[in-house]
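Example record

Each entry pairs one chain with its bound ligand, NDP.
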Amino acid sequence: MSADKYYTLAEGCPFASSSTAVLMRNRDGGGLGLLQDTQLIETLAHFSRERIPERVVHAKAIGAYGEFEATADCSDLTCASFLSEVGKKTPVLLRVSTVGPEAGSADTSRDVHGWGMKLYTDEGNLDWVFNNTPVFFIRDPIKFPSMNRSHKRHPRTHLPDANMFWDFHVGNPEGIHQLLVLFSDRGTPRSVRFLNSYSGHTYKFTQKDGSFKYIKIHIKTRQGVKNFTREEATKIAGEDPDYMIRDMFEAIERKDYPSWDVFVQVMDPSEAENYRWNIFDMTKVWPHEDFPLRNIGKLTLNQNPGNYFADIEQAAFSPSNMVPGFAASADPVLQARLFAYPDAARYRLGVNYQQLPTNAAKAPVYCPFERDGKMRFDGNYGGDPNYVNSSLQPTRFYPEVKGVSQNSLSLHTEHEKWVGEVTTYTSHMKKDDFVQPAALWEVIGREPGHQERTIENIAQSVKEVKSPKLRDEVYDLFGRVSLDLGTRVKRTTEAFIKK
Ligand code: NDP
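Structure tokens for the complex follow.
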């Protein structure tokens, strides 16, 4: 690239003008294009190829760079290097997105907001791929595409469709906890600066001796949680569909850097087995009273992207990106995500997506048994052996991370024997599944007017459902959380329909 910014062709050749075309002109001012006008051809051909596949979920996003700072001694929890010293700073990239709507949609839409965060640690990249909600709609991974389609556009009308949305959730009622969060004020956050983020899944902090703790991560905004009402969110969606992008960009430009405190809940494996809640069920939280939050760090965003496409659109996050000291649990949805996210990135960006500057580790990378492929743009490991166990040029390894890193869990998988043998599995609803949603309904009730707003938000959507039978089933679903909630959703929906 030319440092002094004189125009060249993409091949670096100096060029006289970027706004001329080579034509066979006629006297009336028309002209026939010539094949030899390679600049015109290249310019048009490149334009037609500017788009890469839009993410099927999480397309609309806001992003920025910043840093994670370790704020507490975590040596009793993990050997992860980024947490090894109080005050240690690690660069990060954060990308926050809505889930269902397309890249051009309003970022204030009522939706879960995804939180993709890459920590470029000195032991490689660790991605935290979280949400602004502590629970999720499903706990059986095979339902993921169905759940998302039901939140998107109808296959015939190409319209968002309340009938299929509620039909999905009545048929898959384990999402009731997440539905309550979604239709509460937290379903329409005021901007990225004012939302919290949660791992949802259980993860593990691991130690060099092979021991581990189960953890859940909570990232809490220092700006305070602030939300839009339904009316405000709808109005802003019309006036400024990019409201959240603008809010973040402008805050960082004026040096009003947003920050978050990072906490973990910590559970010993011995506590997991007999705990009331299945810790691998992501429709459940660990109540604070049972597992209090422990501070581990602080996150600050302080740099806007230099180029949106290069830094944010080309960013690829995956829960499978883990460093020594951090590992996945046996949550089936997490297990499926470990495969699905890198698979999506290979499709969307190409097989060498890890080399793109925004995804590239800042730690040294030496992975000579992954070679070639489209768009390889490092040295491709020169003449080093491209096969394992070479005696001509032996590869050196890090034996000390055996039993610590995700891919060599030889020691600490032992505990998970109690999870059981290989089996087919679909979760079924139990009465207990309504206990935590009921607790949330109480939490919502602590703030004056919040229950009423939540009910109206639900009713505003349910009133679009055509089938009275399906509407009744929705009332019943909320009625299983609290009879009063079910009755009030019904009453409010019917009042909206009559209007
Ligand atoms: P607590 O009273 O200790 O915690 C309640 C938490 O609810 C608050 O700390 C706050 O989380 C969160 N909250 C407040 N309003 C909303 C909302 N509209 N949507 C989602 N979360 C909200 O109770 P418990 O820990 O016993 O949990 C009770 C219920 O609170 C749970 O069933 C769950 O629905 C919800 N909750 C619990 C969390 C947990 O990890 N224990 C995390 C978040 C929600 P925060 O402080 O993170 O903002």
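The pocket of NDP is lined by residues 134, 181, 184-186, 196, 218, 220, 225, 285-289, 436, 439-440, 443-444 (CB under 6 Å).
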